[in-house]
Amino acid sequence: MAANGAKGLSVYEAIHRRRMAWKFEDRPVPASTIDTMLDAAIWAPNHRLTEPWRFFVLDQDSPVRRVAAEMARQTVLDRGGDERRADAGRDKILDAPCLMYVYCVPGQDEAATRENYAAVCCAIQNMALAGVSEGVAVTWETGGITRAEGIPELLGADPAWDLVTILFIGYPDEHPLSRRTPVTQFVQWHKREDPAVVS
Ligand SMILES: Cc1cc2nc3c(=O)[nH]c(=O)nc-3n(C[C@H](O)[C@H](O)[C@H](O)COP(=O)(O)O)c2cc1C
Questions:
Q1: pTM, rounded to two decimals
Q2: Cβ–Cβ contacts within 10 Å for residue 173, how many?
Q3: CATH number at residue 100
Q4: 78 is in which domain, residue-wise?
């Protein structure tokens, strides 16, 4: 991915170029770039316009980030992890140039909650595709460190909200290869010209 982005890409190019990355250049992503990506996020489809997404953006050197990192470290220890794993969990939180906690507001019932969760995932993908345009990678983290105790209170999130993921956001310093199975493996297409189905 070009370091200074690739504005003017087609939707298809952005979809295919988007890659998650775990190593980032040591430079911040400007707030204006994050704002642009968030604006793309909120144009995701959402049933009944519930706008169920909530975003918490943590600058790299913010005090909140440092506390969140210590909470992640403690969580690993509390769950039986050793010091090495705990430090690795803390460093993951500290190292990303921009860190974002993304929550979903539950709906009135289970079906609405599922719809809201789907909408938040669409929003994150919009953000990731906008990131391609900006030369920025957006990487999901849903492991144990995302469920550190005290995080909602630290951020000011409603405890009733569901944490969907943490996002690591930055200019990638690696370009991982990826792969997908050909789509024909996953599609059953009932064609117009098929013989009539006899009931
Ligand atoms: C819902 C979801 C959760 C994920 N959780 C993690 C995670 O906890 N840790 C991690 O390293 N990658 C995580 N990933 C990243 C995926 O493993 C990633 O999509 C995969 O490496 C393929 O990368 P690509 O989409 O760039 O091809 C997650 C992705 C998704 C969509």
A1: 0.94
A2: 14
A3: 3.40.109.10
A4: 11-186
